[in-house]
Amino acid sequence: MTGDELRQIVEQESARRRRCQHRVGVCMAAGCQSLGAERVKAALEQEVQDSGKGSEVLVHGTGCLGLCHAGTMVSVETVEPNGVETHRLYERADALSAAEIVAGLGTEGGGAKDRQVPADAPFFAKQTRIVTQGSGVVDPERIESCIAAGAYSALEKAISEMTPAEVVQEITASGLRGRGGGGYPTGLKWSTVAKAAGAKKYVICNGDEGDPGAFMDRSVLEGDPHRVLEGMAIAAYAVGAEQGFVYVRAEYPLAVKRLRNAIKEAEKLQLLGNRIFDSAFNFRIDVRIGAGAFVCGEETALIASVEGKRGSPRPRPPYPAVAGLWGMPTLINNVETFANVAEIVNRGGRWFAGIGTAKSKGTKVFALAGKIVNTGLIEVPMGITLREIIYDIGGGIPNGKKFKAAQTGGPSGGCIPARHLDLPVDYDSLLEVGTMMGSGGLIVMDETSCMVDVAKFFMEFCRDESCGKCVPCRAGTVQMHRILERITRGEGTSDDIQKLEELAELLKATSLCGLGQTAPNPTVSTLRYFKDEYLAHVVEKRCPAGVCQMAPAPAEVRA
Question: What is the CA radius of gyration of the chain?
Answer without folding.
Answer: 25
